[in-house]
Amino acid sequence: MKILSISQTQAADRYTIEHEPIASLDLMERAAQALLVWFLQNIDPARPIVLLCGKGNNGGDGLALARLLRANGYWDLRVFLVDHKGSPDFEANLDRLGKDILQELLQDQLKQEHFPADIVWVDALFGSGLSRVLEGRYAEWIYQINERSGTKVSIDLPSGLMGDAIAQTDLLRVFKADYTLTFQYPKLALVHPYTAALAGQLEVLDIGLHPDYLQSAESSYSWMSLADIQSIIKPRKKHSYKGDYGHAYLLAGSPNTMGAALIAAEACARSGAGLLSLNTAKETFRACNSRLPELMLQERSSHAPNLEAYKAILCGPGLGQDEGVNSLLAELLQNWQGPMVLDADALNLIAKNPSYLEWANENWILTPHPGEFKRLLGLNQLGPDQLDLGIEYCRKHQLNLLLKGSISVFIESDGHCTFYDFGTSALAKGGSGDLLAGLICGLLAQGYTIKDSVSLGLALQGRAAQLAERELGSAHAVLSSDILKQIGKAYASF
Ligand SMILES: NC(=O)C1=CN([C@@H]2O[C@H](COP(=O)(O)OP(=O)(O)OC[C@H]3O[C@@H](n4cnc5c(N)ncnc54)[C@H](O)[C@@H]3O)[C@@H](O)[C@H]2O)[C@H](O)CC1
Ligand SMILES: [K+]
């Protein structure tokens, strides 16, 4: 699914109105119906709801939703308005609302009044029409609501967030949503690593914008959903043997950090790779054999072995950064032309030796978490330009970057970005990155393309983490070892 700019979003709206055709007020009604379905599925009708409505079409959506909620058994509703005058569709919906829903002008009540703790705040102040940072009373209201408890639901965009103007965002003047219900496709600010957390959990609601416009619009950003994954998976053939599924090669682990290498190795094997060799420190062989007897072990020396037999390589998990490892890595980076995942200490060594990037090519996938990404860029802090810097890095060195986070972004060597919201909080733990790197390497070994390996690797990791969470009852308790055991069920779930 493409991610369109705000001007394209407005054009999609106009194109739909003209070519479906549909009246703009009816399109707003369709949007409100989609919002209602989400409320019916997620919000108990007994809860008190306050809808905050601006005077543009975002406010109009809020008013239409208030009317539909009332008609569907939500009784404890209040609508706070910024103004009684606004866009034509706003005013039409204000007329339709009826006086039995309490309407008040948004004033000092936010500061003074007591609101029940289980309240649901619906933010329909500003959506895609926001053109500058919020100031004055708007900024003050956002600040006050952010301080209050309750469930916070934003319509289309959290107010204060400009859909695609990331650099202009003031993070403190944005409504902090628990859920954002956005129309048709995510907007860049909802998935961008600098601003995504403000949107909370993202829900994309189909409001039937015209497919012809969506198909022809150009964008270098896209969004992948779990529904897109099934078509990637290659079935395993009955008449096949291990040689058909590739030999993966891992350069990982050191005596104190073997866990990382073993997690990556098991993930690689469970992804379906035919054979797996691990180049690691000799003193760890006994531990490796007892934990994962399927491994073929190769004693580490400071020279790379003949790599002809291998289909894909993973370097980094638990590798360490001593001189021997460094020269082995350098040799590998220089000589290996096939697909390769670079993670953890391999990234740290590249950050220390930027000249290694001269050997980079389109088969490299660097998989940094934010700390490693900072080191690669030589920055102390990641700011609103982090994605642009990542795009520039990929184009300059002709490699691929997977920026890992609660929403991960895969940047290809041509600068195209794909966003993935497959993670769960269970993955915010040591070991998750090793597991992902192992999966991606195993998929590359089986002949999946770079992009498909990343997409399927993230999907398997995310789904397996969800399954482990369900089995153990809580995200807190999930370990990488639990996630590894769910990879089979994750495959079967697509
Ligand atoms: N395209 C779609 O898919 C559909 C979108 N819908 C909803 O419409 C909004 C966009 O509505 P729009 O009227 O264009 O803009 P807003 O409601 O976001 O607000 C515009 C309003 O605010 C003023 N303004 C802008 N910036 C500021 C500021 N910093 N301070 C104060 N005032 C500001 C501006 O001048 C306007 O008056 C979209 O998000 C959806 O929710 C449709 O309902 C369905 C189809
Ligand atoms: K909003």
TrEMBL record:
<dbReference type="InterPro" id="IPR000631">
    <property type="entry name" value="CARKD"/>
</dbReference>
<feature type="binding site">
    <location>
        <position position="123"/>
    </location>
    <ligand>
        <name>K(+)</name>
    </ligand>
</feature>
<feature type="binding site">
    <location>
        <position position="260"/>
    </location>
    <ligand>
        <name>(6S)-NADPHX</name>
    </ligand>
</feature>
<feature type="binding site">
    <location>
        <position position="159"/>
    </location>
    <ligand>
        <name>K(+)</name>
    </ligand>
</feature>
<feature type="binding site">
    <location>
        <position position="434"/>
    </location>
    <ligand>
        <name>(6S)-NADPHX</name>
    </ligand>
</feature>
<dbReference type="GO" id="GO:0046496">
    <property type="term" value="P:nicotinamide nucleotide metabolic process"/>
</dbReference>
<keyword id="KW-0067">ATP-binding</keyword>
<dbReference type="InterPro" id="IPR004443">
    <property type="entry name" value="YjeF_N_dom"/>
</dbReference>
<keyword id="KW-0413">Isomerase</keyword>
<keyword id="KW-0511">Multifunctional enzyme</keyword>
<comment type="similarity">
    <text>Belongs to the NnrD/CARKD family.</text>
</comment>
<comment type="similarity">
    <text>Belongs to the NnrE/AIBP family.</text>
</comment>
<feature type="binding site">
    <location>
        <position position="138"/>
    </location>
    <ligand>
        <name>(6S)-NADPHX</name>
    </ligand>
</feature>
<keyword id="KW-0479">Metal-binding</keyword>
<dbReference type="GO" id="GO:0052855">
    <property type="term" value="F:ADP-dependent NAD(P)H-hydrate dehydratase activity"/>
</dbReference>
<dbReference type="Pfam" id="PF01256">
    <property type="entry name" value="Carb_kinase"/>
</dbReference>
<feature type="domain" description="YjeF C-terminal">
    <location>
        <begin position="225"/>
        <end position="494"/>
    </location>
</feature>
<protein>
    <recommendedName>
        <fullName>Bifunctional NAD(P)H-hydrate repair enzyme</fullName>
        <ecNumber>4.2.1.136</ecNumber>
        <ecNumber>5.1.99.6</ecNumber>
    </recommendedName>
</protein>
<feature type="binding site">
    <location>
        <position position="433"/>
    </location>
    <ligand>
        <name>AMP</name>
    </ligand>
</feature>
<dbReference type="GO" id="GO:0005524">
    <property type="term" value="F:ATP binding"/>
</dbReference>
<dbReference type="GO" id="GO:0110051">
    <property type="term" value="P:metabolite repair"/>
</dbReference>
<feature type="binding site">
    <location>
        <position position="58"/>
    </location>
    <ligand>
        <name>K(+)</name>
    </ligand>
</feature>
<feature type="binding site">
    <location>
        <begin position="127"/>
        <end position="133"/>
    </location>
    <ligand>
        <name>(6S)-NADPHX</name>
    </ligand>
</feature>
<dbReference type="Pfam" id="PF03853">
    <property type="entry name" value="YjeF_N"/>
</dbReference>
<feature type="binding site">
    <location>
        <position position="318"/>
    </location>
    <ligand>
        <name>(6S)-NADPHX</name>
    </ligand>
</feature>
<keyword id="KW-0547">Nucleotide-binding</keyword>
<keyword id="KW-0456">Lyase</keyword>
<keyword id="KW-0521">NADP</keyword>
<dbReference type="InterPro" id="IPR030677">
    <property type="entry name" value="Nnr"/>
</dbReference>
<keyword id="KW-0520">NAD</keyword>
<dbReference type="InterPro" id="IPR036652">
    <property type="entry name" value="YjeF_N_dom_sf"/>
</dbReference>
<feature type="binding site">
    <location>
        <position position="156"/>
    </location>
    <ligand>
        <name>(6S)-NADPHX</name>
    </ligand>
</feature>
<keyword id="KW-0630">Potassium</keyword>
<dbReference type="GO" id="GO:0046872">
    <property type="term" value="F:metal ion binding"/>
</dbReference>
<comment type="function">
    <text>Catalyzes the epimerization of the S- and R-forms of NAD(P)HX, a damaged form of NAD(P)H that is a result of enzymatic or heat-dependent hydration. This is a prerequisite for the S-specific NAD(P)H-hydrate dehydratase to allow the repair of both epimers of NAD(P)HX.</text>
</comment>
<comment type="subunit">
    <text>Homotetramer.</text>
</comment>
<feature type="binding site">
    <location>
        <begin position="404"/>
        <end position="408"/>
    </location>
    <ligand>
        <name>AMP</name>
    </ligand>
</feature>
<dbReference type="GO" id="GO:0052856">
    <property type="term" value="F:NAD(P)HX epimerase activity"/>
</dbReference>
<feature type="binding site">
    <location>
        <begin position="57"/>
        <end position="61"/>
    </location>
    <ligand>
        <name>(6S)-NADPHX</name>
    </ligand>
</feature>
<feature type="domain" description="YjeF N-terminal">
    <location>
        <begin position="9"/>
        <end position="215"/>
    </location>
</feature>
<feature type="binding site">
    <location>
        <position position="369"/>
    </location>
    <ligand>
        <name>(6S)-NADPHX</name>
    </ligand>
</feature>
<dbReference type="InterPro" id="IPR029056">
    <property type="entry name" value="Ribokinase-like"/>
</dbReference>
